[in-house]
Amino acid sequence: MHWADVIAEDIAKNCEEPLIATGISPTGIIHVGSLREAITGESVRSAVKGLGKNVRLIYLIDSYDPLRKRYDFLPKEFEQYVGMPISNIPCPCGKHKNYAHHYVQPFLDAVDSLGVQCEIIWTHELYEQGLFAETIDMAMNKREQVIKILSEVTGKEENPNYAPYTPICSACGRFTQPIFETYEFPYIEYECTCGNRGKDDIREGKGKLTWRCEWPAKWKIFGTSAEPFGKDHAAAGGSYDTGVRIVKEIYDGVPPYPIPYEFVQLKGVGQMHKSLGSPVTGLDAINMTPPEVLNYLFLRVNPSRAIDYDSGMGVLDMADEYDRMERLFFEGEYTEAEEDSVRAYEIAQHNRTPEKLPNQISCRHLVNVAQMAPTFEGVLEILKRNGNISDMTPAETKRLARRVECVRYWLNGFAPDIVKFSVCNTVPPGIELSMAEKAFLQALSVRLYDCIWDAETIGATIADTAKESPVGLKGGYSTLYRILIGKKSGPRLGNFLADMDKSFVVNRVVQASN
RNA sequence: GGGCCUGUAGCUCAGCUAGGUAGAGCAUCUGACUUUUAAUCAGGUGGUCAAGGGUUCGAAUCCCUUCAGGCCCGCCA
Known about the structure:
Blueprint: H1 3-14, E1 19-24, H2 32-50, E2 56-61, H3 99-113, E3 119-122, H4 123-128, H5 133-141, H6 143-154, E4 165-167, E5 187-191, E6 197-201, E7 207-209, H7 211-222, E8 226-230, H8 231-234, H9 239-249, E9 257-261, E10 264-267, H10 271-276, H11 282-288, H12 291-299, E11 307-310, H13 314-331, H14 336-348, H15 363-372, H16 376-385, H17 394-413, H18 435-450, H19 455-468, H20 472-485, H21 493-498, H22 502-513
Parallel strand pairs: 1-2, 2-3, 8-9, 10-11
Antiparallel strand pairs: 4-7, 5-6
Helix pairs in contact: 1-2, 6-9, 7-9, 11-17, 12-14, 13-14, 15-16, 15-17, 18-19, 18-22, 19-20
The protein binds one RNA strand of 77 nucleotides through helix 2, helix 7, strand 8, helix 8 and helix 13.
């Protein structure tokens, strides 16, 4: 049984209306790991849904987290915002509402394109609505107990200054240390390092719970029944462990069913990144992996398994595997070993499985076509000419367009040289042709000069000429590839040459034959 | 130091909480297709299941030990 179904059964057993929570802290640039979390959550959601339960997936954006430091990618002036909640910091590019929106937007776009069906919730709005007031009050009243729990679970010494809640300074706008003795619902006083002294009303959302107390507070508020989270939180003594005790002993709530997942490693194998020694970014992965394939990538293995994202040929391998599973799914016949992978394909559709097998144009094939045609229209034209596509539904066209975009992105920065080609301006230097090959080219040049310039005729002409020559069919093709793109193989010659200017091709063949 | 995960064919992984003669895909090799491609189809090669010990009639599968790799333990998934 697929892991998502196993988890779904466990959840469905204990809850009537399960709520699955997931989230992100958009303090900086996103990475694919965050997508693994979203996809894991969505997969469990759709698996639970499949069991007939009324299930929700909420996506919490931690927009009230403080900016911890001025990251390298931020301009100098952002130094002044360190310590402030990111929803109160201006957008670095000026096009978004604030800092949080700026960094979470590409991520939300990705989540959307992946088909994740969730309700977006902004944490800073929860605070503004006073939804955390009750848990803040409980955490402040039982602060000593919280400190004890933290110490017991983490094995560290008790920290008497631990603040479950930090108010925002009314003068400088940064989170600051409260004066615990002054707490009396709903007010707490604070003295900020900027010199300002003030009084905070915990109901007004001018402060936030700190992480180890905030997470369990969310469980309590939403009644979370399951939640995926990274292995960092899952480590013994980590925030899940402390959260379990805090939600039970401080908030009188129930901890969610944990779905810990391993991290995703991005290894740059493309020469561009390899030479620089810099890794593939999460955005790269999104840009070069079709969404349906990325979904499948995370679903095919257990969450407990680390994933090495292979940005080289692995991208194509994965896409091919996806297509294969899609075929198996619609054929309905597969081995036991393939069962979970086929199910992974199905879950990757998030309950929006196509009715019939969609038109599959493999990414591997698109790699060639995309290099022949610079535009999507051009790609479509070539595919139509080859009979690869006929009637396309809008959904199929959309998927194809996305695949072409991904393939181009991949070719641009990650693809190994063997799959790339470009037409050389002259006969590539260093090419040595045998007498037979030259004779072949000579004969071919004459026939090409007279032939009608369409793919079929060109193809037939080449095949006929090559067969009559001692170089043979295979040798003939290889010779042409060598003089045109400097490689031993390449895309189908008929269409390839038909796309080029006739005199250019003929001239090249003549030149090479001398 | 503590914790988690992983180690099965060249590569990516299934199989392991139903213990019963080693699996898939890709790669590679061979053959076919009178138009080629990292295309399609058919077939083949390929593994003492990290190592050692234990339980068992029987272990990749359960238990113990060791080795190797990855990662987490600072509110970074």
